[in-house]
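Friendly challenge for the regulars: who can give me the structure tokens for this chain first? No prize, just bragging rights.
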Amino acid sequence: VMVGGGDGGLDGPVGLYPALAADLLDAGLGTLRVDFRIHRFPGPVEEGVHDVRAAIEWLASRGIECAGLLGHSFGGAVVIEARTLPRPAALAIERFEAPAAVEERA
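First reply, four minutes later:
Bragging rights claimed.
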């Protein structure tokens, strides 16, 4: 689950998310990019968490058993907060730090 910054958008920092999604797909992993319902900066974190939680619950309802959360800027704060809340029992959530190679590619 990829979450962009406070000004919204699905592409992440410098358009990184589409390329990362393609690389992950090549490795057999699907992605879901989430845009916030509210585009205000700084936005209300709790509303962003609601959007991410809705994405997680949508994945769980479709049988997805494991997901990672990746957030940029304001989206990073949102995924950290979302990770602290109770989650669907079948869904394990992991937060990943961007490897240096990905940061350099951007």
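The chain is about 40% helix and 15% strand. The helical segments are 16-26, 45-61, 74-84, 100-105. Your move, everyone else.
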